[in-house]
Amino acid sequence: MLNSLEVESALRAEGFTLEINNAHAGGYKNAEGILVFVKRSKEFKANPRIPMFKQPLVVHWSIKETPAFAQLQEIASSINPLYVNHNMRGFEEPYSDRKQNGIAINVESIDHLKEIIKILSAKQYIPSSSYEDITLASSSLDGVPETTRKSIVDARLGQGVFRENLIKYWESCAVTDCTVHKLLRASHIKPWRVADNSERLDKFNGLLLSPNLDLAFDQDLISFDDKGNILIKSDILDRESLLKLGISENMKLRRCEAQHKIYLSEHRRIHQF
Fold it and tell me: Which residues belong to any copy of the HNH nuclease domain (predicted)?
């Protein structure tokens, strides 16, 4: 059984970095934007080498609403789905009195930790709402001037400066050339949750899309290659579905600059195209 110090060391070895350094919980995040916490002892400030032994790893509360929760229960010898720790910034639950809560788990070994990370990395665990994305990213917004912070949050909501810049740049849908701005969505190419603050506001990390294309792009059903040609997951979207959605295999971005290609490469990698 790994204690808290061993779990922290193993997380670092798996590419996680310490994002939230609180007295009784350390928050670690990886490149995919997955945030987990590791419990710390009451004596941590005086002696950070004193470990915690019981269920040292804490994952986000929202996983309880996904099939991944059953998978965790299958592989965990001890699990507490009602763990609360006010040091876990970013784990606030909306519309609930149980703030900053999560699911605490025993970690049997490094291989067991890798199995847990694999479950968390599945698409089913990625936050599905803008609220969750914003709360999970709260640490990256610390110290950011209020005006900039508002622009970054607005960008996740498809509003504000980010949207205005996309409208100025694209003028119409990046694919269909539809000019009804009220219908068009400001969509991030490299997802907001894994982008840094400058990327979240970069107009080249955005596409102005009609609603059907925006949702398909966000839900990893379509992407675009470096020439702007549409890529479609045909095992999910067959020809009949494409016809009903108004999506064509011949579609392409109206422009695709070098800066777009960097972000498109990330989108394809993250969504496995």
Answer: 173-225
Distance between CA atoms of 75 and 54, rounded to whole angstroms? 16
Contact criterion met (CB below 8 Å) for 120 and 63:
yes
Give 240's strand partners.
none
Domains and their CATH numbers in the chain: 4-128 (3.90.1150.40), 143-270 (no CATH)
* 186-217 pLDDT per residue, tens: 999 998 888 899 999 999 999 999 999 999 99
pTM greater than 0.70 (yes/no):
no
Tell me, what amino acid is at 15?
A: G
User: 């949750």: which residue's tokens?
Assistant: 193
- Measured distance CA(152)–CA(146) in Å, rounded: 10
pLDDT of residue 259: 96
CB 126 within 8 A of CB 193: yes
Determine the Cα–Cα distance for residues 39 and 99; give it in Å rounded to an integer: 16
User: 21 pairs with which residues across the strands?
Assistant: 26
- Are 25 and 89 in contact by the 8 Å Cβ rule? The answer is no
| DSSP single-letter state for residue 205 | G
